[in-house]
Design a protein that fits this description.
Oligomer: single chain
Distance between the termini: 23 Å
Structural class: alpha/beta
Largest sheet: 6 strands, mixed
Number of strands: 8
CATH class: Alpha Beta
Helix content: 25-40%
Number of helices: 7
Length: 192
């Protein structure tokens, strides 16, 4: 995904796009709320929360909210990291906030993949609802095998323009090697 895709820095609008890739199993499993009794239901609930984040991301999220993820293999923080998130705006006014367009990709594996038809049905229903219903679009990927392998594949595809959310240390290492930034589930829950 290339930089751009919206209003540019010249008019103070979002100038960068970042995809948040969510390790569904790991994020759901980070909270002991009974998710193991209904993995598909837990995936649907996570999707619903991510849809709200995706809607916010369509308008742009302040760079400061995205800057707490860990650096890539090169040490660069990449898109979203902005040590000067509050910079003068185009008119020179101090305190203008740099916005970053955010898309969300949810990777599901195993028993949680049974949620995909339910999520699709809910998306069809939401598309028939009035605009401004509080739901953005979340790309859902049903991993045919290992969810970790699919996440790394997506991280390679979006290298330099994604944040992978997982607490799995080996997956984090693999994603950083692929050029992604990584963050834990608590960082994501903080955005929600």
């Amino acid at each position: 995904m290339a930089e751009g895709g919206g209003a540019g820095a010249a008019d103070g609008g979002p100038a960068t796009r970042v995809t948040i890739i969510v390790d569904g199993a790991n994020v759901v499993g980070s909270r002991p709320d009974g998710w193991w009794r209904d993995r598909a239901g837990a995936a649907v609930r996570l999707h619903d929360n991510l849809a709200k984040l995706a809607e916010r991301g369509e308008q742009g999220i302040p760079a400061a909210e995205l800057s707490d993820s860990e650096p890539t293999a090169t040490g660069a923080r990449g898109p979203g990291h902005d040590p000067e998130a509050e910079t003068p705006g185009p008119s020179g006014a101090a305190g203008a906030v740099r916005l970053i367009l955010v898309t969300v990709l949810l990777v599901l594996e195993g028993a949680a993949r049974r949620a995909v038809p339910r999520i699709a049905e809910r998306a069809r229903a939401a598309n028939g609802a009035a605009e401004g219903d509080g739901h953005g679009e979340v790309e859902v990927v049903s991993a045919p095998g290992s969810g970790d392998d699919e996440i790394v594949r997506q991280a390679h595809r979006l290298a330099g323009h994604c944040i992978v959310v997982t607490a799995d240390r080996e997956l984090r290492r693999r994603c950083v090697a692929a050029g992604a930034r990584v963050a834990g589930p608590s960082w994501l829950y903080g955005l929600l």
